[in-house]
């Protein structure tokens, strides 16, 4: 039972344009959400997070939007750069229970010149 | 700062062999985790340790054991390796429960 879903395995975007990566979750107990970025042969690195008490969090070129009623979050990257090409994982957790992250299957973003 | 260090980076085992994956963090984090990454499956939690002296099963614990040796170190043991355990293994740590986790570079394990 996949509680965190990233339905797009891959995405290709031109440099300078907006990249939008989507994530859906089914567990209503999740109250904290994170995005990780992963390059080949490296471990995932934290990118940005959002608490369920917010609907938007922004950090430079990266913005995460949360729609609790739809159980949906998205990561916007504006403008996209070639160095953003990586696999992006969405993750979720419940801050009141055990300390563990549930990850989605990832979306491979390719930013083309 | 080294962050989270995993050893080895690569390993090939024969079916039935045993081995231990080592992980150490130098960030004074309380919580540590072991994940495996398989194509199309994302990262799945094997075991975690919320604090020194405690360990709990994650989503896919079968065939693995863990030891939280001290606050810095969290090892993962395969007692009798199986081809289904071919994967990339990641260790991670976090400061308090449920905040961002920092990952090691991974161990690529192949069981033949």
Please explain how this structure is put together:
Chain A has 113 residues and is mostly beta strands. Chain A is built from no helices and 11 strands. The N and C termini of chain A lie far apart (38 Å). Chain B has 112 residues and is mainly beta. Chain B has no helices and 11 strands. Chain B has strands at 4-7, 10-13, 19-25, 31-38, 42-49, 56-57, 64-68, 74-78, 87-94, 102-103, 107-111. In chain B, strands 2, 4, 5, 6, 9, 10 and 11 form a 7-stranded mixed β-sheet that branches. Chain B has a 4-stranded antiparallel β-sheet with strand order 1-3-8-7, with no helix packed on it. In chain B, strand 7 and strand 8 form a beta hairpin. The model of chain B has no long low-confidence stretch (mean pLDDT 93). At the A-B interface, strand 4, strand 5 and strand 10 of A face strand 4, strand 5, strand 9 and strand 10 of B.
How would you summarize this macromolecular structure in one to three sentences?
The complex is a heterodimer of chains A (113) and B (112). Chain A is mainly β and 113 residues long.
Fill in the keyword field for this structure.
heterodimer; A: mainly beta; six-stranded mixed beta sheet; five-stranded antiparallel beta sheet; 11 strands; globular; B: 112 residues; seven-stranded mixed beta sheet; four-stranded antiparallel beta sheet
Oligomerization state of this entry? heterodimer
| Mean of all residue-level pLDDT scores of chain A | 94
* Structure classification of chain A: mainly beta
Largest β sheet strand count, sense and barrel closure of chain A: 6 strands, mixed
Strand content of chain A: over 45%
H and E order of chain A: EEEEEEEEEEE
What is the strand tally of chain B? 11
Largest interface (CB < 8 Å): A-B, 26 and 28 residues
The percentage of residues in β strands of chain B lies in over 45%
Distance between the termini of chain A: 38 Å
The description of the largest β-sheet of chain B is: 7 strands, mixed
Which residues of chain B form runs of ≥5 with pLDDT under 50?
none
The whole-number mean of residue pLDDT values of chain B reads: 93
Number of helices of chain B: 0
The count of helical stretches of chain A stands at 0
Question: What is the number of E strands of chain A?
Answer: 11
Backbone structural class of chain B:
mainly beta
Outline type of chain A: globular
Provide the low-confidence segments of chain A as ranges.
none
Estimate percent helicity of chain B: under 10%
Helix content of chain A: under 10%
